[in-house]
Amino acid sequence: MYDLHSHILPGVDYGPESMEDAVEMARVAADLGTIAMVATPHREDVTENLSVRDVRERLDAFKVELEGRGIALELLMGMENHLDMELPDALSQGLALPIAGSRYALVELPFFGRPNYMEEVLFQLQLQGVTPLLAHPERIEAVQKDPDLLAGFVERGMLSQITAGSIVGHFGGRVKRLTRSLLRRGLVHVIASDTHYAHGPRSPLLSEGVEAAAALVGEERARAMVVGTPEAIIGDCQLEFEPPTSDRSPRRWWRFWDV
Predict the structure, then answer these.
(1) Alpha helices, DSSP H only, in the chain?
(2) What is the pLDDT of residue 253?
(3) So what's the pLDDT on residue 250?
(4) Domains in the chain, please, with CATH?
(5) Which of 17, 63, 122, 147 is deepest in the core (most CB within 10 A)?
(6) Longest C-alpha distance within the chain, in Å?
(7) pTM above 0.90, yes or no
């Protein structure tokens, strides 16, 4: 499996504080079947406390540590980019990062409220050739109040990533119900861990969420959300999906091409 959203770099945000904690997270992820993980520290933490160069150096040191300990987990660089009016410029200047150098960028909508610049900034990203992968929309107030907001973004070519724990209730019943509704509507493309710790509800465990998703949308679609689609994103492949639908009948849902 491929995990596109993780807070695994030590001493960057509110993920692991030490290298030992980060190594334990990596060990757990690998043991649970994850073969590649994108480190996505919060953009604001990198901007305020470190730099892009710092986090890249930490990732390189972390890779060396894992190799020395025999932990088979590929680490890639990304960033959880909070949405603000500066994001398009930050991405073009290299101060915000896409996923593994691809055209896809993990974008976190504001947790509360619905700022009037939201749609415009996302459109500007698309004009720059960036495809937003919207982080955990099921936990975003604007989407909770109006799920059709997410449907509109998906219809305009954006992708969405839910947290595995949301499907099984780690963030409460309301989030669980919405997450399952988004899955049934075809509004979910990627399942990721958003891990912060080695153990507990914010662990790197993906399989529990994938199994719950499979019960709703079928095993093929659920597996695609942690294998085929994230692999294509890391590989910078062009992805196309069928429009969102309430039809729950199993069918081939995704395809991609190398371009």
Answers:
(1) 19-31, 43-49, 52-69, 87-92, 118-127, 141-145, 147-155, 164-167, 173-184, 207-217, 219-224, 228-234
(2) 46
(3) 43
(4) 2-257 (3.20.20.140)
(5) 122
(6) 49
(7) yes
